[in-house]
Each structure stands twice: as structure tokens, then as C-alpha cells.
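User: Could you walk me through two proteins back to back? I'd like the raw sequence and the C-alpha cells for each, with a short line separating them so I can tell where one ends and the next begins.

Assistant: Of course. Protein one, sequence then structure:
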Amino acid sequence: MAQHTVYFPDAFLTQMREAMPSTLSFDDFLAACQRPLRRSIRVNTLKISVADFLQLTAPYGWTLTPIPWCEEGFWIERDNEDALPLGSTAEHLSGLFYIQEASSMLPVAALFADDNAPQRVMDVAAAPGSKTTQIAARMNNEGAILANEFSASRVKVLHANISRCGISNVALTHFDGRVFGAAVPEM
């Protein structure tokens, strides 16, 4: 595997050195930034339970490691990474799972922590739809989600992912997110 070197601006390095607790190693932090992210997926529980998904994919030779902060999220390793691309599998195309970075699953996990169950959610920059579809699954397609995307080219991708995942509680809009400011109460 080719080694990639990440460029860090001096201002970033200075800021991180100042912000990082002395109990942590700055060199370890920089080394971690050089490593590629582990590939991860999220089971779409609107279409299949986690248990049924694990049973369905067991014969595929996928190693699925649970993501601690997302009960339907898994880091994935495949025996043959050169096989059919993950995004071209029947399971992905039919919306049984979503390819989503583990870190992207964290905001939704935080939103629904401690038995919090919002009935209305606005995602102001929603494309490509990873968090929007995760929120819809956590809401069990109930309540209402306003999924807004300013970029016209990204609206199509957002719509495709919402449709593929079987989401029915989303209103899709295409505005500059600033238009919502006056209508949304401050918390």
C-alpha cells in the first residue's frame, strides 16, 4: 500500500499543539492523521434488522466490527477488496446498508442519546444524505425531517439516497441555509 503524506499548515500545527492535552502525544496524533480511515457502513434498519443483515452477509467473508457509538454501524474489511465494489453490491443498491464514515455517525448518535427522540429535525446541508438517512432510521420514518441542500448538483444525489433507503418522512428543499434563520427558534 502506498504511503501518503498529509500536509499540515503551520498555523494548524501550532493551534493543535496548544489545544492538545499534555497527557497525549503530539507525534501519535500526527501519525494517526497519516493513516487512512477504516471503511465503515451503517445498516439501514428501515429495511433490515442488524441481526438479519449480519446473517445475510455472513457467507460473504466480510469482517464487520461494531462501531461503539452506533449500534447499527460497522467497520468493514473484505477478504477480496478487488471484488465487486461495495457500492455496487445488491445489498447497497437496494438500500440495506449505507457506506458512511464512522465519524459521520457520531452526530446522530449524540442527537438521539439519553432516550432523546426528536420529532422534527432540520439538516441544513444534507447531501449526500448519510446523516439524513440515519436520522430517518432512528425516527423509524416517523416525525418530519427537512433536508436542505444548497448545491444543485448535490440535490440529485441526496434525493437518490433518500429514495434508495426507503425514507418517507423527509421534505427536500434547495435553498441557501441562511433563509431558515428567522424561522428557527434559538436554543
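----
Protein two, same layout:
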Amino acid sequence: KDIIYLGIGSKFSTTFNNALLAAREFDEGRVTIIDSENLSTSIGLLLLKTRDLITTGKTSEEIKEEITRLTSLVRCKFAIESLDYLHKGGRCSGVSKFVGTLLRIKPIIEVKDGKMDVYAKTKGKRKAIELMINEIIENKDNLDLENVMITHTFADEEAKYIYDRLKEELKEVKRIHINTAGCVICSHCGSGTIGILYLLKK
């Protein structure tokens, strides 16, 4: 059987390049490599779409074309509990970390074009969460209604709060998943991080 590989984005890890190297060990055309340009459960959203395309009988090349198109329609944002990990990762200066901690600034990290950047800064984590909730609600007319992901690192109560809000506000969405984030989000953002991830229609 043919193989479709869809993993963490090429700008986040060498895994993508390793997959390209591994594909050379198979007959030409046997392995199709797709750059997700994403991480965490954003990849899960794309994998679910890949499964649907396989079920409908699409070829590997047709699937690659469609999933590549969808990567730019993924919306992935995380509210950060502490600035420590952003500082250690070089995304926040020592002065910004000190001032931000003093003022209880909570940044929201966005994954866009295969990279992580600061999307917004709020005073207090609840405001950050409300901003993310309000944004997905504002996009509801353009929202892919199949799946929405709530992903967190040791933020169970906040995940449940977001879940309840989205179930109330977005009744048309078929499935809202709560997931625990993996090591990439943990290493970049730390404990207490929570995000909302979804696909747009266009």
C-alpha cells in the first residue's frame, strides 16, 4: 500500500527532512510527504481531512494538493501561562519578561506560515482565553463544522470552560475535542498553556 506522511511542520523540526530521506528507501511514488506547516492538534485536523479524502478514493497526489491548500486555513492559537519558556526560547527579552510578569501580561501565540509568533498580549489569562473564544465565534460563518480542538498542558479546568462555551455558542460543530498537548508545545510554552485550533472553509 502507498504511504502518506503528514507530521510536524518543516520549520519546527527536522522530522520533515528525515521523512524525505526515508521516502527514498521506497519505490518512487510510493511515499507522499506533505508539509503540514503546523504542530500539535492542528496536524490532527489535517489528518482527519486526509482520512476523509482517502475514504472517497482520492489519489495520493490529489490528497497532497488538497491538504497543502488547507494548511493556510488552519487557525492555531495558544494562551501562555508564563513568559519563562518564551524567554528561554529567545522569543521574549529579559526586560519584556520582567515587565510582563510584573503586569500579569499573558501572550497569545499564533502558528502562521509554519512559524510561531506572538499574536496578542492581554492582561490576565482569562482575557486571553476570552479573546480566543470570541475570535472563533466571530468566524463561525466560515468555520469548518467537522472538528474543533481544545489543546492544553495541565489546564483541565480552563479546557472544560472553553468546551462548555463553544458547545453553547457553536451548536453546529459536530465534534469538539479536548486534548493534552505534546512535547513541542510543552517545551516552547510550558505548563498551563491552552489553545483553540480549527479550520476555516475559505
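The radius of gyration is 18 Å.

Let me know if you want the two compared in more detail.
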